[in-house]
Structures are given as C-alpha cells and as structure tokens.
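Batch job 17 of 40 flagged for manual review because the log was empty.
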Amino acid sequence: METLVQSIVSGVLTGSLYAMIGVGLTIVFGVMRIINMAHGDMVMLGMYGAFWAHVAWKIDPFLSIIVWMPVGFVGGLIVFRFLLRKIVPGGELNTLLYTAGLSLFVANLALLVWTGNYRTIKLSYAIMPLRPLGISVPIPLAIAFAMAILLTAGLYWLLVHTDTGRAIRATSQEPEAAALMGINVGRISMITFGLGTALACGAGVLLAPSLYLYPTVGEILVTKCFVIVVLGGLGSVPGAIAGGLLLGLAESLGAVYVSVPYKDAIGFVLFLLVLLFRPAGLLGEGKS
C-alpha cells in the first residue's frame, strides 16, 4: 500500500510539470492550429537557462524563472513575427514541417554550443527528501509542483479575467467572428505563441533540477507533450492538465509495477488506447 501511495504522489508531482508543458502547446494549437514540433526544444532552452544561471551567476534555478519566462515570451514573439507568421496561413502540415526543421536547427545549435555532455544541477537542499506521512518527496520536485500550480492558476486568471485572455479564447473558438468583433487576430496569435513559449521555458526551468540536461532532450519531451494534448483533447487547457497528470501517473505506476525501462512505453499504450476509443481526447469535444 505504501508503494502504491508513493507511486501516486510521484506521478502527480511529475504529471503537474508535464501538464505545464502540454498547456503551452495546446493554447498555441487552439488559437493558430500550429503543430509546434519545436516546443520541446523551448523546454530544453529553459532547462539550460536554469543550469547556466545556477553555474555562472549562482542563482537558484527556481528563482531564475522570473528571468527566463519573460525571455521566452519575447523570444516567442520574435519567432512568430519573423519565422512563422507567413507560414501559418499555409495550413497545419506546413507548420508541422517548418517547426520540425526549426527543432532540428535549435537542437543542433545547442549541441554545437554546449556539446552533447549530460549535465545536472546539484542543489544543497536536494540531498534529503521531505517525508510527510512516511512518503518520500524530493524537495526540488515539491517546489516545482507548487510553482507549476501557481503558474497554471495565473494562466487561468489571464484567460478568464483579462481582455487579452478573452480575446485569446474568442480567437480560439471562432477566429473570423473574433476579427469581425474588432479583435486583432494577428496580434493575438503572436501574443499566444509568446505565451506558449514562455510556459515551455518555465516548465524547463522547473524540470531542470530533476532531469539530466542534454541538447536533444526536447525530442522526448515534445513526444510526451503530444501524448498529453491528445489524451486531454486538442485545444483544451483543462484537458492538457488532465492529460499531463494521467501520463505522470501512468509512468510512475508502470515503473513500479511493470518495469522502469518500459515506463515510457506504457504512456504510449495509453495514448493509442485513447486514440482508438476516444479520438477527441478525454475532455475534448466530439464523438468517441
């Protein structure tokens, strides 16, 4: 019983970070129908940002999020304005191929600059885990979980209680009607892409103390990201959160009760089952 509870706790903690990655991708897809294959590389850049801030400037990686999320937002604006804006009208296949090329460029540039060495962030407070009720909880993962909740709550507030958030939701639901109502769809698309990139960088910062860093880590992360958004339903923010938690739980329980090497495969089996029996996703609209 204790093993089961430990697995569930670990799955929820990890799943919350997966959810944050998935939310960034799903709002971009929901507004612009951009299938962003470079999303995982934006997470990777956030991880390296946290690493170098810690090594070069002695800044706690979690505190560096106040630097890297704004940098990610501005970077997303620039990428959309100069690289993606003219590609989006060509359709989803064009954006998929274009962002796949962008992903290869970013990963290989990181490989050239930082080499392929695996790196880790060593924190003094990560040596001993917390043990509430006898359950082992790594301190970095607990901090990341709390910050992910705050960031997700902040995103919810932005989408529900601000004019920009309402414009994002309106553009996601019906872009032509939104344009007729006076919303600058192009501007909202650019802001949304910047927001998605900021969330990806923020998720990378939160993941960095708990994972190995290497330039191609984005490949496995973007794969997990697509599993998450399909599980929850494309374009659904609550679905992305649910999908991230479900994937985290599936991997954690699979590692304990099946085998650690097969924990990723269990997530993909779950992904295939949802596609087979619920193509619209668990919280997506449409017929199953």
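Reviewer: the log was empty due to a logging misconfiguration, but the result itself is present. Residues 251 and 264 are 6 Å apart (CA to CA). Unflagging and moving on to job 18.
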